[in-house]
Batch of 2 targets.
Target 1
Amino acid sequence: MGNDISFDPNYVKGFVSQDELDEIFPEVQKAHDLLENKNGPGNEFLGWMDLPETIDEGLLREIEDTASDIKSKSDALICIGIGGSYLGTRAAIELLYPEFARQKVFFAGHNLSGEHLRELINELEDKDVCVNVISKSGTTTEPAIAFRIIEDFLIKKYGTDGAKDRIICTTDRKKGALKAMADKKGYKTFVIPDDIGGRYSVLTPVGLLPIACADINIRDLIKGAKSQRERSLECDLEKNMSYKYAAIRNILYRKGKRIEILSDFDYKMFFLGEWWRQLFAESEGKDSKGIFPTTCNLTTDLHSIGQLIQQGERNIFETFLVVKKEDTTYVVPESKDNLDKLNYLAGKDLDFINKRAYDATSEAHFEGGVPNTTIVMPERSAFCLGQLFYFLEKTVAISGYLSGVNPFDQPGVEAYKTKMFKLLGKPGY
Ligand code: PA5
């Protein structure tokens, strides 16, 4: 359909052959069976698979009503969370929400920078504020510290009862310090389903509430994910774009292409890249395996790491992410004296020029030894973003099984925490 995202393996010739795709297909079938029969590693975290189909109408209405309430009484929403409890929301808002709009969504708790928090609180001193604190475990250090400080700011501003009406906690059904705190203090809560891990949770209340606060149509987002779910049920490399992408990635990885760059051509996609990077790194980087995922925001980064991509070590492959049709563009004006020598572009719009930059870059990188494929979003819309979220989740699930890892856990992130807690004197460490 014209409105659907697509995957174009345009520049892999000479790097990935039809024979290699045929060879890997039985492995794809095995991965498909593990996922669909729900008997592979991490099968207790497969709630994201049917979520777009099964999401409850009552829950969607409650999210929309809460977002309306937040917008009616505040100039700003502070969204506190890190990793999977943060990146998908930010990706959606940065892509689809006008940067300079009045109702602002601010982010906190995704770092330990006191300076960032101080600037945020100073900025919001004279504004009306609501807070959505999001943590599945309810015990993650960064958001917990930010919440303690911001809760204190709200209580000073509105009093305990006033603050209570402005704090919403998105967390586990029963476990964790945040759940216990919300119950004790009477804060409104939304539940993160037990069977959905952080990085697969953007289409739960984790993402849906703050995304709705940014006036993005969450029903369109879900509709997109639902349609992509239906488009990725069949185990067929030509009909299922997740499977084709997963197969190509693994073929390239096995031939020494250890680094994948997701390169977008839109500065508003920066956080989409960040979300993708976390999803792929945490899902595949374990058991001494894993493609190293990194991102480029183009054309900006062509002037920073473009040199390395073109001529550095040939251990890279690239996945472009482009929007086919942009609504709002600027036309380069004609200049009488043409001092900047740009009249050859007069009358051309910026999107046209950006597209030629993409055409040129994909061809040049391919000729320089970097195989590349392209994910095309037909338009910048909630529907297409919903499709994209689901497409990438399904891809990494299959890709993880293809490389023999559990794509749904992240045991490695505990190592630094244990050491840090010891250094900080946390009881029990
Ligand atoms: O994907 C993941 O599981 C992680 O990135 C978590 O989302 C992140 O560590 C935050 O965890 P929590 O939501 O428990 O605060």
Target 2
Amino acid sequence: MTHSSHDRLLIVDFGSQVTQLIARRLRELNVYCEIHPYQNVTAEFLRDFAPKAVILSGGPASVIDEGSPRPTADIFDLGVPILGICYGQQVMMQMLGGKVERGHGTAEFGRAYVTPARDRIDLLHGWFEADREQVWMSHGDHVSAIAPGFAVYGTSPNAPFAVTADLNRNFFAVQFHPEVHHTPNGARLYENFVRLAGFTGDWTMGAYRDEAIRKIREQVGDAKVICGLSGGVDSSVAAVLIHEAIGDQLTCVFVDHGLLRQGEAEEVVTMFRDHYNMPLIHADEQELFLGALDGQSDPETKRKIIGKLFIDVFQKHAGEVGGAEFLAQGTLYPDVIESVSFSGGPSVTIKSHHNVGGLPEKMGLKLVEPLRELFKDEVRELGRELGLPPSFIGRHPFPGPGLAIRCPGEITREKLEILRKADAVYIDQIRKHGLYDDIWQAFVAILPVRTVGVMGDGRTYDYACALRAVTSVDGMTADYYPFSHEFLGETATRIINEVTGINRVTYDITSKPPGTIEWE
Ligand code: XMP
């Protein structure tokens, strides 16, 4: 495996829910880091990866239990700074000769306050300016004796060893979680740690872009690459980056399944074909998709039809390119991180998400995934670096199956047309009120029900629709957006006045969970 040429920090994951936040905090400091499950971090891996520093994450296990996760002991012989967090702290103490015990009234969950225990060490630079620091604790076990060589530098009422360090070896261990928001000054601790470990903050988007271009050229040589372009941020940024690296060796395929929003197909085609001058196949397959969906109302059946047809169509058009060896995908880092599972069993499928899974094997293609190391906001930054217009980069996510999953029940052309118009009015309202960037995703769903209304002196019998707008970080959980009543009232009036076919507007105030963001 070839690793990034930047200074590398290794995060050993023991399965904490918030491990990804550690990586976020570090990336914000322009430090390159990777998360790897503890089982994969062998002595050989360590030699190959050659980290400049290591962080041991938190996790749900108890170090007291037989068979609980342990990092390889070689990690402590690397001669690089190590920071253990929560479970990482306990595992460090246990392995280095200290002692960990079960709760007995010392479990701590939630807010706690740490006060300094003795002289301020570099790790705590900028801490305790107001005597004490608020931190977030989440532990059942606690360290009852610290390992030889360590001293205590911070305590809390229930964690006498809240911050400990062995300054000779540059080993640090904290009982709390500095990566979460509830530890307001936590970012400072990471900043101090990477500074003392000698990181120079060389992980910038400009540097990443140059390195990614070099790697793409190296990987692809003079072969041809095809890329499924959806108009979403990830595939767009991947396409522009690859085009910059290999020019016309790249051909993009844009599949129009008839389930796009108003003006979307034209926008994508104009942007990539005319503005970026990319070879682009515009596969207008509306008839095919809408024909196959005719009469179908079951959400999973609809998704499966779209997923399968998408692959067929993509394969057909990619074949026109002739002799492509590579398929480009906008895979992101969160899709790549292997999760540490202690519960075993597979998770339940809520919805079968549509992507081009299985396609590379089927077509005998190798993958080019230049965004594999990036988080979503970093992809946006790279997009800006590549000169993509801000309006494009800031677009809300749009699902692969498009409007199909915003049209519960049977999909008809009439309903799709009404939905497109209503959605355009709603988004226009959101933009006019300057709310677009505060909202993670907003759209209209057309409901499979007609209701009675009165317009002028006449009776109407038209569709009802639901407005949806959520805030979210990653789409995994979401809250409904708290629009003002004025905004909602004005938007309902506009939709009913401007969109023939809708006479009732509702606002969906379900969070996720228990709801999902899309309606199907
Ligand atoms: P749900 O509805 O599951 O959606 O709460 C979470 C996020 O994922 C998007 N989504 C999809 N994206 N293919 C995609 O590319 C899909 O099949 C798909 N289904 C949902 C959804 O728009 C939201 O942002």
